[in-house]
Design brief:
The structure holds 3 protein chains of 3 kinds. Chain B is mainly α. Chain B has 11 helices and 2 strands. Chain C is built from 9 helices and 10 strands. The chains are: A mainly alpha, B mainly alpha, C alpha/beta.
């Protein structure tokens, strides 16, 4: 049923190469619209990877916006203290969400997978409240505006071109982290995805791998929040609305969950499609809904999985 | 004292609403093993159907509520039978299907009715003054209907063969099937029953609170909190937890104001998961 | 010396009693058969002992450690492995990868007889085939071999012969003998009475969640209440 594809390492490589093309875009165009769509696609792809890591183990995470908020606000608050060094804030944007995820993962991931779904969903709702209820730290409903651009090797990442290229760099970093994790523990993740009960009865401490995945997934989401804040130069609760969790899930499922190319294709395609709606962006979720239904009912591998299995069938012909 | 009693009444009223939602959600999870992300969607649908019946068809409100129940139940029945049924044992797939349905439903309502909140008023207004306590009549009516629905649901589940069958399926599907129960028949019925209850709650509550395409999300979040608190799959737990959630929310809003209640509940749920992961009345939760 | 001691173990689901007050010992190196009509709670017994499901009461002691309600991975790491009634392998990967995962997850070195087992049971030439593509019998046997691959002290087998052809059932006999040669104790839940008679010097009979009998098969199977329990099943 499920599109089986054997992508050994080159999927990650291909993703990085495609992303790296983003560095070259400013050579061809200065269109603000193109830059904006590309930025959104980069951010969407980073966030979708955080969903994808958990989907490797059959877990659907709605917590991405919550961890994005932690990462994004970390950067914004650091900016208030004039900490703008790109390396420092990148590490902070990754580590803080990851730290928050440790106790939460240890708590929830020992339980049935359903608890994970429910708790992550509620977490994103709660994060919104937290942002509003802690004005001293997060600026409450005003958020934090005027976040200074990060500085990379002494250069301010201030212009549109620099912001784009920096987001591109973050997307590549996220891909490398995600790729390294899922490659290194490929057998464990695959065993959990396919037959968790058997894996556990053979002695695999399933919840620890899930928790590890969750921690990295939270860190990667933090990077997405960082990218978002560095694009908008503000951190505002509305940027991390819990409803956006569904967008990232849609990117991942529609693109295909079997390889890292899935979230890449999904994020790129759906961000582009959403922009076609123009000012009627709120209708995009209906499209996502229909696409999710279609994928689950008729094209289990998503776009990438379906293409791969079609290609496999075509190749298999005499 | 008046404040205290007021909070109790609000809390019980909220609790009754949450119980209807959470019981439906738990019923679906317990019997089908499906996490129904569309549950908030059926609540919203109930609200819009009732609104349309009143505003466009000129039906009296009680009939509009009935129509909402039937519409939500019918959609639930069809959705279960044709989309969920073939994949019912694939938990991730069914979860994504209900998520997809929810997105389609809320975008559908957005397209038809627009993004703004509807002018949907409860037909009865005014308040009851019981000494120093002030209770809006509409809340009392909603609470009464919700409690009646809960009693009816309890009767169905615990006093009829259908209910016994449903509970047996929720307890252990394999054993229940070995004893001759037919999930093919009971699954869509259980799903329709639960979504009908969500529709009922939506039709009753949206005129008091608000009716807009976004109302499903907080409903879903509250249902989730409730079922975790009560223990996934436990009907008694869901009922007890629903009233707990209602009372905590009411007391927090009366004494602290704002959204602190939801935060407190979330912390409560996390603490519960640390010390008693089975929920208030739940069973085994470990592992897959 | 006792390897596994089960002490008035019981399991309920909601109001439903699956089994109650089950006690028995499995001596070191021993072999014990468990029989009983459908729905007698045999599989649930294995699930509760191996940590898949929580006990409602009683104790399970492995060696001198109380393992009641420990997580499945912990019990597995303490040396108690189990097989599953339905075929249970990682279906999308090769036979070799399945065995390798079992050894890796078990975190001990592969047991001495493992490669000989693969050869004798016909899995060796199909090492590179995807598990899902194997004939049903071989998938089932692969599942048994994987449970053995984590070098357990005790192995619980849940209907190892169910779904196998007559001639394939011989392999279950051979598997059990091999496992016992390596010093592992075995508990078999099985429907195939011939297999139980052939293999087990001692059997337990479960009926409606209670322990009806415990003793040598010839003696136990002649008891009128045991016969009644089975006749009851045929009549049903």
């Amino acid at each position: 049923m499920r599109g089986r594809i054997s992508l050994f390492g080159w999927a990650e490589l291909l993703a990085v190469v495609v992303l790296a093309c983003g560095f070259l875009v400013p050579m061809y165009t200065r269109s603000v619209l193109v830059y904006s769509v590309l930025n959104q696609a980069f951010i969407g792809f980073i966030a979708a990877q955080s969903v994808w890591i958990m989907l490797r183990m059959n877990l659907l995470s709605f917590a991405t916006p919550a961890f994005m908020a932690i990462g994004g606000y970390t950067v914004a608050i650091a900016g208030q203290y004039d900490i703008t060094n790109a390396f420092v804030v990148t590490i902070g944007a990754f580590l803080l969400p990851a730290l928050v995820a440790i106790p939460l993962g240890a708590l929830v991931l020992r339980l049935r997978g359903t608890y994970f779904v429910l708790v992550t969903f509620v977490l994103s709702e709660i994060m919104q409240l937290l942002l509003f209820e802690t004005p001293a730290l997060t600026g409450g409903s005003n958020g934090i505006s005027g976040v200074p651009p990060v500085t990379l090797l002494g250069v301010d990442m201030a212009s549109n071109r620099q912001v784009l290229q920096f987001c591109c760099g973050l997307a590549i970093l996220a891909t490398v982290i995600t790729g390294a994790l899922t490659r290194f523990f490929r057998q464990h993740f695959a065993a959990i995805e396919e037959n968790e009960i058997l894996a556990e009865s053979l002695g695999l401490v399933v919840w620890r791998f899930k928790a590890l995945g969750f921690v990295v997934s939270a860190g990667v989401a933090g990077l997405a929040g960082f990218a978002l804040v560095s694009m908008l130069l503000t951190a505002h609760p509305s940027s991390f609305a819990s409803a956006t969790a569904v967008d990232f899930i849609a990117y991942t499922i529609v693109g295909g969950r079997a390889s890292i190319l899935g979230p890449l294709v999904g994020a790129g395609g759906l961000v582009y499609a959403t922009n076609l709606f123009g000012t009627h962006g709120q209708y995009a979720q209906g499209l996502y809904g229909v696409l999710i239904l279609v994928v689950v009912l008729v094209a289990r591998g998503g776009v990438v999985g379906t293409i791969a299995s079609l290609a496999g069938r075509w190749k298999g012909r005499p | 004292m008046a404040e205290f009693l007021q909070a109790v009444i609000i809390g019980l009223s909220l609790g009754a609403q949450y119980a209807l939602l959470a019981l439906g959600f738990t019923l679906i999870f317990g019997i089908l093993g499906v996490v129904n992300f569309a549950h908030g969607g059926f609540y919203m649908l109930g609200g819009y159907v009732a609104y349309s019946c009143v505003a466009y068809a000129g039906l009296p409100y009680p009939l509009a509520v009935l129509a909402a129940v039937l519409a939500a139940g019918a959609l639930g029945w069809v959705f279960e039978l044709f989309l969920l049924e073939p994949l019912v044992d694939d938990h991730l797939a069914t979860l994504m299907l209900t998520l997809g349905l929810y997105l389609v439903l809320s975008t559908g309502m957005l397209t038809i009715f627009g993004p703004l909140a509807m002018e949907f008023r409860f037909p009865v207004s005014g308040a009851l003054h019981l000494g120093p306590i002030y209770v809006p009549q509409e809340n009392l009516i909603v609470m009464a209907i919700c409690l009646a629905a809960l009693a009816a649901l309890w009767t169905v589940l615990y006093r009829t063969d259908l209910g016994r069958g449903l509970r047996a399926l929720a307890d252990d599907r394999a054993v229940a099937m070995a004893q001759g129960l037919r999930p093919k028949l009971l699954f869509p019925m259980a799903f329709a029953l639960a979504t009908g209850l969500a529709g009922l709650t939506g039709a009753l509550v949206t005129p008091i609170l608000a009716l807009s395409p976004g109302v499903g999300d907080p409903v879903l979040a509250t249902s989730f909190l409730t079922v975790i608190l009560g223990g996934l799959g436990s009907l008694e737990g869901a009922a007890v937890a629903a009233f707990t959630v209602g009372l905590v929310e009411a007391f927090c809003s009366v004494y602290f104001g704002g959204s602190i209640g939801a935060l407190i509940l979330f912390v409560l749920v996390l603490l519960l998961l640390v010390f008693r992961p089975t929920g208030l009345m739940g069973r085994t939760v470990r592992g897959a | 010396m006792t390897d596994l001691r089960v002490d008035s173990l019981s399991k309920r689901f909601g109001g439903l009693r699956v089994f109650q007050d089950i006690s028995f010992d499995l001596p070191s190196g021993g072999l014990l058969g468990v029989i009983g009509p459908n729905g007698a709670g045999k599989t649930t017994l294995i699930n509760v002992i191996s940590g898949r499901q929580m006990a409602s009461g009683g104790r399970v002691v492995l060696g001198d450690r109380d393992i009641t309600n420990q997580p499945a991975y912990a019990i597995s790491r303490l040396g108690l492995a189990r097989s599953f009634q339905q075929t249970n392998t990682f279906k999308s990967v090769t036979v070799a990868e399945n065995v390798a995962r079992a050894v890796r997850f078990g975190r001990r070195s592969a047991p001495a007889g493992l490669s000989a087992m693969l050869v004798d049971f016909g899995l060796a030439p199909r090492q590179q085939e995807i598990a899902d593509k194997l004939p049903y019998g071989l998938q089932k046997i692969l599942g048994l071999v994987m449970a053995f691959a984590i070098s357990p002290r005790i192995l619980l087998l849940d209907e190892p012969a169910a779904g196998l052809e007559r001639n394939e059932r011989k392999i279950v006999d051979a598997f059990v003998h091999r496992v016992r040669e390596s010093g592992t104790s075995v508990l078999i839940v099985e429907h195939d009475m011939d297999l139980i008679r052939r293999l087990c010097p001692r059997i337990l009979v479960l009926d409606a969640g209670t322990l009806l009998a415990d003793g040598p098969p010839a003696e136990v199977l002649a008891r009128p209440d045991v016969i009644a329990a089975y006749l009851g099943e045929e009549a049903a």
